[in-house]
């Protein structure tokens, strides 16, 4: 691993967190896989040798519990879901170089090799621990077979993770007030011998690793509390019939914990890829073990600890290379609320495709709607706005206008030189694109591609080639064809199929997937045919229809629930943030110094707010709910570290907090001074 800017001479492996086969895929799941696929395609654009791998996580208690409920074997259920996922990913143009599963022989054998290496290096020991036991079922209760109270935050927790509360990983015996998920009866703790990976052996190593690791800020910052606070050893075995048998002595009736063999599938999947294409094409051992490589993990933020504490220790203990970067995506909400599969408040992968939308529309939206680690709010209205305003109006409109004029007037690319100004614009976009990918910033990379098309639209509109004779128009159209080619190259990681369509319309050979960033400035073909429109707009009536369907499905799923509450209050979000995430919010007391309406906007008010250390300009949707004169002098609460935005051409640097549809402004009980930090 070099930590040099991409592209490097080392092979890269991009992995996506393994899906767990207990349910269908929805738009929230797909965010990880679209981002991983887009990032790997982006690296290839830079000339980086890259493999994209993943697999289905087949083991563990959740699938064992669900299989028991459905009267099938865990293997049968897992394979059914595995095939479903393997068929769904290509439907969204997610193209893994290898997609395996954790019960395949390659992963089983590699996992056992890892464990044997830990034992040989004296990183494993046996200890008697308290394990939940159901005396009525005469059965040990590992992980999701036991429920209770989290000892850290007091929320309801299941087995090995407090997924309703603080998101902490829980070791066997930690959960309080245990009950059996099998019978619903109280469980009891009994002594049981289990195997542990001695994480304390890696304390100093992890302190250095977390400082070297690249990726998203949440992945780099969240684990510091666990690492710097002293590591608890990692129980790597479970009392379960379903899983990989413990390969060492004293573990005859134990299987390995699912979080042992699951990440090793990253290595196994890469190895399977090498076995298929040959090590001359891609040698799995070079990035993972024998050489240098660039390993990048793309995951959901709920499994950061596993990939930044457990996994690097596992790799180090077995003599494997460490990851270069961990990129943790935020959650996907639906219409401002958390996704809820139980209430059918979700847009399922198959449902999206059945509505007839092109997969590239979703890919672009989900990869660029927010920064990598920020939550994305999916709504059909936002989806429509992005497709119409960015893909149809900007990219599609420019490409069609440019190529149509070129074909009708010059049969293709005019035989003149590219202008210096446009060459400089494209070269600058290429630099920005490369910088964005090296910052693990897909949103900015996507904006570079669309920004170049926006520049092209403005250029062709101002030059008005339709008013010029052929000699005068030729340089303009030559520039626009080159801009179109550059857009096709840069947009390909986000909209691979649509970029290929544009590539073909340009008369280029091969596929846009094979083009590198250098091709942005390579001369386009001399001749090409009349183009076709790339994107169609989504009409308001279609959005209304989709929202009606969504509400109907939510209502149907909720029909059996108690709807007797008289107060119409929004549901609490089902996703929790960690205390570390909350601490990242910089909430300050502010005082509104002035307020005036924003021209052309019905609801927006431009505020000048004193936050103690400085005065900020903030745009807020308060005009129809508050008299602007009354706002002056009011004490408010401000999110001071929100990303800057531009609304109706006015810069907004922060957010004023308010409650409910009437925008009840949050304030303080006493006379706190502007700039006082809210904790």
UniProtKB/TrEMBL annotation:
GO terms for biological process: methionyl-tRNA aminoacylation. It is found in: Cytoplasm. Is required not only for elongation of protein synthesis but also for the initiation of all mRNA translation through initiator tRNA(fMet) aminoacylation. Zn(2+) binds at residues 150, 153, 162, 166. One of its GO terms (cellular component) is cytosol. Belongs to the class-I aminoacyl-tRNA synthetase family. MetG type 1 subfamily. It catalyses: tRNA(Met) + L-methionine + ATP = L-methionyl-tRNA(Met) + AMP + diphosphate. This is Methionine--tRNA ligase. InterPro entries: aa-tRNA-synth_I_CS, Anticodon_Met, Met-tRNA-synth_bsu_C, Met-tRNA_ligase_1, Met-tRNA_synth, Methionyl/Leucyl_tRNA_Synth, MetRS_core, MetRS_Zn. Transmembrane segments: none annotated. Keywords: Aminoacyl-tRNA synthetase, ATP-binding, Cytoplasm, Ligase, Metal-binding, Nucleotide-binding, Protein biosynthesis, RNA-binding, tRNA-binding, Zinc. The lineage of its organism: Archaea, Methanobacteriati, Methanobacteriota, Stenosarchaea group, Halobacteria. One of its GO terms (molecular function) is tRNA binding. The gene is metG. Its main location: cytoplasm.
């Amino acid at each position: 691993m070099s930590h040099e800017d991409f592209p490097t001479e080392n092979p890269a492996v991009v992995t996506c967190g393994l899906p767990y086969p207990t349910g269908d895929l929805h738009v929230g799941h797909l965010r990880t896989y679209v981002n991983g696929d887009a990032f790997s395609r982006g690296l290839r654009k830079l000339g980086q040798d890259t493999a994209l791998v993943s697999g289905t996580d087949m083991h563990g208690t959740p699938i064992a519990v669900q299989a028991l409920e459905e009267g099938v074997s865990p293997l049968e259920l897992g394979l059914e879901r595995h095939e479903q996922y393997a068929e769904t990913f290509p439907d969204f143009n997610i193209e893994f170089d290898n997609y395996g599963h954790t019960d395949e022989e390659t992963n089983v054998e590699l996992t056992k090799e890892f464990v044997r290496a830990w034992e040989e290096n004296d990183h494993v020991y046996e200890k008697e621990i308290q394990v939940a036991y159901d005396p009525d079922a005469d059965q040990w209760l590992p992980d999701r077979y036991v429920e209770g109270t989290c000892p850290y935050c007091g929320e309801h927790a299941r087995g090995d993770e407090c997924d309703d509360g603080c998101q902490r990983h829980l070791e066997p015996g930690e959960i309080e007030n245990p009950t059996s998920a099998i019978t619903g009866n109280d469980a009891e703790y009994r002594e049981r011998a289990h195997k542990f990976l001695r994480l304390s052996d890696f304390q100093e190593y992890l302190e250095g690793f977390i400082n070297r690791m690249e990726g998203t800020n949440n992945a780099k910052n969240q684990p510091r509390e666990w690492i710097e606070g002293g590591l608890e050893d990692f129980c790597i075995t479970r009392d379960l019939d379903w899983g990989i048998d413990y390969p060492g002595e004293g573990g005859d009736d134990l299987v390995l914990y699912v979080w042992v063999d699951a990440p090793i599938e990253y290595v196994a999947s890469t190895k399977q890829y090498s076995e298929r294409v040959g090590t001359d094409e891609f040698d799995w051992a070079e990035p993972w073990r024998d050489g240098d490589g660039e390993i990048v993990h793309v995951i959901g933020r709920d499994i950061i600890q596993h990939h930044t504490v457990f996994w690097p220790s596992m790799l180090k203990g077995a003599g494997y290379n460490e990851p270069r970067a961990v990129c943790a995506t935020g959650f996907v909400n639906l219409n401002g609320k958390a996704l809820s599969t139980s209430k059918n408040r979700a847009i399922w992968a198959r449902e999206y495709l059945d509505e007839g939308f092109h997969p590239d529309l979703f890919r672009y939206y989900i990869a660029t709607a927010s920064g990598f680690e920020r939550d994305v709010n999916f709504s059909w209205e936002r989806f429509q706005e992005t497709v119409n305003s960015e893909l149809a109006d900007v990219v599609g409109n420019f490409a069609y206008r440019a190529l149509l004029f070129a074909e009708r007037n010059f049969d293709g690319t005019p035989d003149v030189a590219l202008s210096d100004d446009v060459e400089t614009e494209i070269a600058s976009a290429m630099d920005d694109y490369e910088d964005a990918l090296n910052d693990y910033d897909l949103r900015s990379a996507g904006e570079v591609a669309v920004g170049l098309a926006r520049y092209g639209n403005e250029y062709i509109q101002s030059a008005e080639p339709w008013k010029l004779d052929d000699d005068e128009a030729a340089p303009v159209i030559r520039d626009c064809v080159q801009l179109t080619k550059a857009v096709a190259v840069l947009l390909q990681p986000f909209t691979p199929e649509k970029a290929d369509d544009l590539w073909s319309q340009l008369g280029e050979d091969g596929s846009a997937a094979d083009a590198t960033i250098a091709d942005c400035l390579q001369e386009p073909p001399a001749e090409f045919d009349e183009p076709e429109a790339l994107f169609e707009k989504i009409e308001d009536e279609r959005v209304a229809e989709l929202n009606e369907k969504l509400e109907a499905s939510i209502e149907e799923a909720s029909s059996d629930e108690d709807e007797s509450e008289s107060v119409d209050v929004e549901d609490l979000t089902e996703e929790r943030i960690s205390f570390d995430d909350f601490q990242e919010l910089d909430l300050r007391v502010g005082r509104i110094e002035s307020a005036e309406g924003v021209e052309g906007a019905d609801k927006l008010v431009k505020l000048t707010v004193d936050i103690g250390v400085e005065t900020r300009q903030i745009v807020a949707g308060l005009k129809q709910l508050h008299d602007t004169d009354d706002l002056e002098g009011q004490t408010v609460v401000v999110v001071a570290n929100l990303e800057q935005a531009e609304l109706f051409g006015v810069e907004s640097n922060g957010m004023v907090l308010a409650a409910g549809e009437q925008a009840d402004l949050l304030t303080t009980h006493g006379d706190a001074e502007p700039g006082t930090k809210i904790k």
